[in-house]
Amino acid sequence: MLIIENLTKVYDNGFMALDNISLEIPDGQFVAIIGLSGSGKSTLLRCINRLIDPTKGRIIWNGLDITAATDDELRQIRRRIGMIFQQFNLVKRSTVLTNVMSGRLGYINPVYSLFNYFPPKEKARAMAALERVGIPEKANNRASALSGGQQQRVGIARTLMQEPEMMLADEPVASLDPATSHSVMKYLELLNQEDKMTILCSLHFLSLARAYSHRVIALKDGKIEFDGHPKDIDNDRFKMIYGEDAVEVEIH
Amino acid sequence: MMNTKTPMRSNQILKRIIILLIIAVVLVVFSYGWTVTDIDLAVPQEPQRQENVGNALRELLSPNVFTQDYEVSAYTTNFRITCSDSEIIPPTTPSDSPYIVVEPTCGEGDETVTVFGYNLPANGLARMNWIGEDGERRIRQVNGENEDNFVVRDDGTFSVQIQVPRIRGTTGEIHTVELQARIPVGLPRFSNTTNLVMEKMIETIFLALIATAVSILPSAILSFMAAHNLMRPIRAQFGSLMVSFTLLPVGWLLGVLLLYPVGQFAFRLGSENVLVAFGAVVVVIAGGIVLLPRINTLKDLIPIVIVRRLLNTALITILILFIVGLIGGLGELFRASFPRGTFANVSTFIDDIFVYMGAFIGSLGEIIEFTLQVVAGLTGAFALSSLGTSLAKEPLKKTDTTFNHLLGGILGALGGAILLGMTATIGLSAAWMGLLTPIVAGALATTLLPQAYRWFVPKPEVPNQTDRNILRVLAWTSGVIGFFVTFTLLNVGQSLVEGMLPAQQPVLTINGANLYQYVAFAMGIGAVFGGFAGGLGGVRGTFPFGSAIYNTTRTILNTLRSIEPLIMGLVFVIWVGIGPFAGVLALALHSIASLGKLYSEQIESIDAGPIEALQSTGANRLQTIMYAVVPQIIPPYIAFTMYRWDINVRMSTIIGFVGGGGVGFLLQQQINLLQYRNAGVAVLAIAIVVSILDYASAAIRERYT
Ligand SMILES: Nc1ncnc2c1ncn2[C@@H]1O[C@H](COP(=O)(O)OP(=O)(O)OP(=O)(O)O)[C@@H](O)[C@H]1O
Ligand SMILES: [Mg+2]
Predict the structure, then answer these.
(1) Which protein residue's CA is at the shortest distance from atom 29 of ligand 1?
(2) Domain segments of chain B: what residues?
(3) Which chain B residue shows the shortest CA-CA distance from A92?
């Protein structure tokens, strides 16, 4: 269970990106976060694993207060929360295998990292993760040599190394074509169904949210505009979230 | 169509006035510059100067690169003074070998005769001699010109007119007309100047190479400390930071006492012989593989955290020193293993390569040997202080409010006193160094007023611009006040004006080490500033540690970079004497500053995405740097290192002008002797080497960027 209480984020320049947000997300839910560009989706997701420090409010996950965690505790918590990104955030010059294995860094002895060493069983784990996302043959390629969809799957494999209980996905398919988008979303769906992972995924297309999520949270100017089942978003709701001039486009 | 005659708006007029003003200012600036730089178009047109520069350029552009051995051969024919019928000199019959003919074959003194030559070396230099019966050789100038020498034609023939010398009482004598022709022997070869220049050029390239190599590691380390994207987020708890600050000297001492012998031992193992070195390497690797994975199991073995962490730190620092020492030793071993002649029977080229490689790797080993003590001290200092930080952090966090500020004041006073004590000690070295203490004191003071303000006005829940502006103004104000208070109290102004060091009366002597009044005073100021800062902030407060390191490193790098390597060279020549070593030191120091800056800019421009991604997996700071930063910066680091080597070769060609060795010394010598043809050789060599390197470094950089 993830409980967000009165979460507020004001950036250093005084801009209020999140305004007193409270949420409860039960384990195993697939939550889509939608909203216009600048509505605070990324900020919300990054506050949850404290890549961004919230200004006010508390985030409690399975009884642990993430907002009050010390550096060491925070690292322990982050190990169990995977995150994937719109720009994939792979190290382009490193091999796919190294990129995947780097998801395990939170678990292995930091001294190993000085010598760029990973124990063999972590290599095996990384290969298994790559097999799960269907690209084991790319293990020794440079990450930059992969297509966008493949890179995002490497990103997912990297989070699998963390054996996460929750996954934060910040517009994971925004730079992919529709077909590839669906294949990546399918992997998230699989993780949600097979591994019972809680998934918080920000999306640009409502149609993707409708297709994959159990619950949609719509943000507008840092506030929650809608929180409910995807099929409850009718045309009026849609216009409230996206503005009067918006038209819903389908993505197939 | 729209009306084109829209009235000019006032801001447009203002814009034009500003443009006119700028043009006027630029004009004034340039005219002043014209005068200051003594530009006088008449001077270059003076005939004498034009001739001088023409000569100098001609010689520079006729470098004395090659030389040729010559053999002088003489060919003769006879000439009779005063013609008579009785003795006719027989005409020379044509043949394939060189010969000369004089026409006419007899005559009086002062008459002009023509000499023909055949089958001579084409374009060879030749001269005519006249040999009387007394056997004396008289050089004849040819064709009435003021020239002794003439040049044989392309087809090996010549014809010149010479004058029969007037020799007293010579009627009927048979004289000899002699041609001395210079014939090249063998192939042209490099002149002595060229050989010397090449020797010096190799010295130059090595000078640049070693200066670059030496600078890589320090500048790489500094670059991390000078990258704001890495340093800004680092904030540390004030109390634990002060604990670590006071532990630094203790750690240094422990490092030098305990770790240095380990490094020395490993160095000896590495340089001993191949077998021992190999054994040591195996032991390190095996030790690493066996011990490191088990470090975590210590938890069950030793339950006391402090003991466990201490053991952990000791193990790792010993391992580091052992490895560093071993690498140094291996470098030495490499050089010793391949002395000149090892591969002489394979190929002299391979032999040379190994000698050069040995020199380079051996130098690196030597550098490690020289710096081992410093490395040990630094390792000890950093290990102990980081241990202290992490152990002190949690207990300090739990201090209650009164204790928090009390302890903060005490620790702050201690830290401030140490800091200003250090700067004041440096300030004792030279008058202008005295400025360091007020500057650092000012930086320390910047925290005072903002913190005092916070004492009365609590931090707003939502950050806002006014609050930030107030803090900024207060920080500047207290910084400036802190600077001037220290400046006045320490009487820095007087020593600046008089160029004298501050008066040095020891107030205290411990074990022969003096504590000077000046230093004690500075420490007092540091204690007051630090005490107030720490007391207001409290031990639990955070300190922008990363920003402090960033600003300090940047300042040092920028200062160093603004000093020209030639000036550094001058200082190092005083220190280590004339020669390439001084050049290496000067260029290395400048390279550290310059590469440190360039490297750090590369770190600042990396893609932040992977950093964010690795942080989100729970990796710690070191791991994030190793896996998200390092892979991104290796290519530009290689490119910039090449670029720097390129620059260092250029600079090392002129560092010799101040005695820093290399080809520049030769160049300066030849210019001073007005031997422009020899100087030309050096100039040519520099141009060739620099352009080759330019091309090579550009090619490599292109590959990596
Ligand atoms: N570091 C920052 N400093 C100041 N303002 C920021 C910063 N990061 C984001 N913002 C602002 O906060 C608001 C919310 O940003 P956020 O990235 O969370 O939006 P988003 O919903 O993810 O948008 P998008 O769909 O474009 O990714 C935006 O208006 C943005 O300009
Ligand atoms: Mg976003």
Answers:
(1) A38
(2) 9-39, 40-68+197-235+563-705, 70-185, 239-395
(3) B632
